[in-house]
Amino acid sequence: MEKKILFDFKQEYIEHGYVELETPADKSGDYAMAKNYLHIWPRDTFMLIALPNLDRSFTTTLFMPFKQFDQLTTETAVTNFFRATFPDAVKLIGENHLVKSFMDTKPSSLISVKCKPYHSGRAVIMGDAAHAMVPFYGQGMNAGFLDCLMFHELMDQYNDNFDLVLPAFTKMMQPNGEAIVDLAAYNYIEMRHLVNTWSYYFRKKMDNFLYRLMPNSWVPRYTMVTFTLTPYSKCIEHRDWQDKMLTRAAWIGGTTIVAMALCAVLPLAQMEDYLEHSTRIGRTFSRVVRGTKSHLGYSQFFLRHAWRYSD
After folding, report:
1. Cα(279)–Cα(264) distance, rounded to whole angstroms?
2. Quick check: 227 and 235 in contact, CB under 8 A?
3. 159: helix, coil or strand?
4. Percent of the chain surpassing pLDDT 90
5. Which residues fall within 8 angstroms of residue 269, CB to CB, at 6 or more apart?
6. What pLDDT was estimated at residue 125?
7. Which residue, among 83, 33, 80, has the nearest Cα to 60 in the 3D structure?
8. Pairing status of strand 39-42 against strand 108-116
C-alpha cells in the first residue's frame, strides 16, 4: 500500500516505553488486589498499571519515558526507584522477583499509525494495519472488530459490489481510525497525570451527574468510546460540545454572580457610568443596566443575552 500513489502514511513512536512485570497470587492463592478493576499508580510523567489474569496473577506494566529507563541499569537503581515511587507495589510483587524480572526485560516501544485510504484496487486494510494505536484506551482489538462489522454491513448494503464497498469503507472508517488513535494517546496523559488533579474528579462527577439527569443527550466520553457503537470521531465531537456547554455555563454563572453583586453594592446610575468605559463585557453590563428597572430585572435580562457573548 505504501508504494501506491496518493497513499498517505504516518508512523509515530512516542518517547515512552514499557516493561511488563507480574504480580503473583498471594500466599493463599487468591488475587493480591481486588480483581475486577484496572489498578493504576499515576506519577504524572509515568505510571504503573495492573490487570487481572485468570490464574489470579496480575500483568503489571510500567510505562515511562525511555530516558528514565536508561537510568535504571543496576539492581540497586531499580530497587531504589521502586521503593521510592511504588512502595506498596513492591510488597505485592516481591522485591527480589520484581528486580529480577525488570533486569531481564528490555523496554519495548509504543507506536501509532495513521493512513489513508484504507483500500487500493481490490485490497483493503483493517485493524492495526490501518490504525495501530498505543494501548491506553483498550480499543485496539475492538476497533479491528468494528472494521469487520462495518465492512460486513457495507457488503450487505451494496450487494457485495467491491467497487462501491471499498471507497465507502474508507470514507466511513478512516476518520474513526484517526480519532481512536488520538483518543488512545490522550488517555495516556489522563491516566498518568490528570487523574491526580482536582479538576479531573470535578469533571468526572459533573459528567456522571448530567448523565444520570440526561442519559440520552449527555454521555461521558469514556462511556461513549467503550460501551456504545458511537463512531470514534463523533465521540470527540460530542466531548467538544460538552466542553463548550460547560464553559458557557461557567461563564454565565460567574458573570451573573458578579452582576448581582454589583447591583447589590452600587447604584445603577453609578454602575452604568463605570461599565460604559470598561471592556466589551463591561459594555454588555452597561446595556443590561439601561434595560433594567430592578436588581431582579437586571439578572433576568443578563441571563437572556449572555449566551451571545460566551463564544
Report:
1. 21
2. no
3. coil
4. 75
5. none
6. 96
7. 33
8. unpaired
Burial of 183 (0-12, 13-18, 19+ CB in 10 A): buried
SS3 36: coil
30: Cβ contacts below 8 Å, ≥ 6 apart: 56
Give 6-36 pLDDT, tens digit per residue: 889 999 999 999 999 999 999 999 999 999 9
pLDDT for residue 135 is more than 50: yes
Which comes out higher in pLDDT, residue 283 or 111?
111
Q: How many CB atoms lie within 10 A of CB 106?
A: 8
3-state secondary structure of 262: helix
Task: Give 146's DSSP letter.
Answer: H
Q: Identify the sign of the CA torsion 25, 27, 28, 29.
A: positive
Burial environment of residue 14 by CB neighbours within 10 A (0 to 12, 13 to 18, 19 or more): middle
Grid coordinates given for 165: 464497498
> What residues pair up with 120 in beta bridges, in sequence order?
123
pLDDT tens, position by position, 200-234: 999 999 999 999 999 999 999 999 999 999 999 99
In terms of C-beta density within 10 A (0-12 exposed, 13-18 middle, 19 or more buried), how is residue 73 classed?
A: exposed
Report d(CA 37, CA 51) in Å as an integer: 7
Phi, psi at 28, each rounded to 5°: -85, 0
Distances (CA, A) of 123 to 28, 165, 298: 53, 11, 65
Q: 117 preceded by cis ω (within 30°)?
A: yes
> Rounded to a whole number, what is the largest CA-CA distance in the chain?
78
Q: Between the CA of residue 157 and those of 48, 152, 164, 174, what are the distances in Å?
A: 45, 9, 10, 19
Work out the angle at residue 236's Cα, subtended by the Cα atoms of residues 231 and 237, and round it to the nearest 5 degrees. Answer: 90
